[in-house]
Design brief:
four-stranded antiparallel β-sheet, about 325 residues, ten-stranded mixed β-sheet, single chain, alpha+beta
Length: about 325
């Protein structure tokens, strides 16, 4: 019987049990499980993999816990600016959007670009014009912003004064929990990449992947990371695998990370887990960090990361189910 299932992520980085209040940990676990169940229900009903990807990612975009949609980080001008992509492994069609400031669920718009336009990527005002033409709900940018993200931006700007460009060059996003003093030395702070994503395998053996992000805190100049770039942060091909990445985007772009995993399977005959590990090793060698989730047509999956933790989950029809945050399981 053809296996089916999905893998999801909500960001990788310095995610440590000792720094995580129990209530917040439970919140992350519950939201990951909600996204996992939403996507799995779609697959269980016999619908195609892209439907499951959108269902799972939408749950994470609507949560203030993750750096996507509502709760996205703020750019240098104090605004949320989101990117997303989706790819159908059956047809190799893809859609991506970047620089969105008013679209509630970027992953949905990316899918519309894939299915209802002749293009692969739309950016900025052009993407938002397409969204309006397609009847998407547009919101004030204030919908996406949270007090937590405002605090992070203030801290990032202070850090930038002493080390200009450091946050962007390393892809660091300082996350501060409620009750923190706001100090960069806070023992309860996390440095993490909060991009969300999903890779899915449906009952017909078809694959799809999608990724959504708010990018980097304090990003400038219309910066776009790997998430909406097909082959870098997002890739799916029935012949190999489906991949969604999270991490220091500049490094994932340079390695063409998601496609690199697929290429190792295609050209070297490597197993999925080995290919994923080797891709992350390449990223580490040039100074980058992060993680990815991937699944192949046999239902094998991989959730590797080279950071202390990664918000991640998997559910496969053979009974495998995982919801984890930390590196030690």
């Amino acid at each position: 019987m053809q296996p089916y299932g999905l893998v999801i992520h909500g960001g990788a980085g310095t995610i440590l049990r000792k720094n995580m209040p129990l209530e917040l940990e439970n919140g992350y676990r519950a939201k990951l499980k909600e996204a996992l169940d939403a996507g799995y229900a779609v697959l269980e009903s016999g619908k195609p993999a892209p439907d499951a990807v959108v269902a799972a990612v939408t749950v994470l975009e609507d949560s203030p816990l993750f750096n996507a949609g509502h709760g996205a980080v703020l750019n240098a001008e104090g605004r949320c600016e989101s990117d997303a992509a989706i790819m159908d492994g059956r047809t190799l069609t893809a859609g991506a959007v970047a620089g969105l400031q008013h679209v509630r669920n970027p992953i949905m718009l990316a899918r519309s670009v894939m299915e209802r336009s002749p293009h692969v990527m739309l950016v900025g005002e052009g993407a938002e014009k397409f969204a309006r033409e397609e009847g998407f709900e547009t919101l004030r940018n204030s919908y996406f912003r949270t007090d937590r993200r405002q605090k992070e931006l203030e801290i990032a700007k202070r850090l930038e004064e002493t080390d200009p460009g450091a946050l962007v060059s390393q892809g660091l996003q300082e996350q501060f929990h409620e009750g923190d003093t706001g100090s960069p030395d806070s023992t309860r702070s996390e440095s993490k990449f909060g991009t969300v994503g999903c890779a899915a395998l449906d009952r017909n053996g078809n694959l799809a992947a999608g990724t959504s992000t708010g990018g980097l805190t304090n990003k400038k100049y219309g910066r776009v990371g790997d998430s909406p770039i097909i082959g870098a942060g997002t890739y799916a091909d029935n012949a190999t695998c489906a991949v969604s990445c999270t991490g220091a985007g500049e490094f994932f772009i340079r390695i063409v990370a998601a496609h690199d995993v697929a290429s190792q399977i295609r050209y070297c005959g490597r197993k999925l887990a080995n290919a994923a590990d080797l891709t992350l090793a390449k990223i580490r060698m040039i100074g980058g960090s992060g993680g990815l989730v991937a699944i192949d047509k046999e239902g094998n999956f991989a959730l590797p990361f080279n950071t202390p933790g990664m918000y991640r989950a998997a559910r496969i029809s053979n009974g495998n189910e995982i919801v984890e945050l930390y590196g030690n399981g």
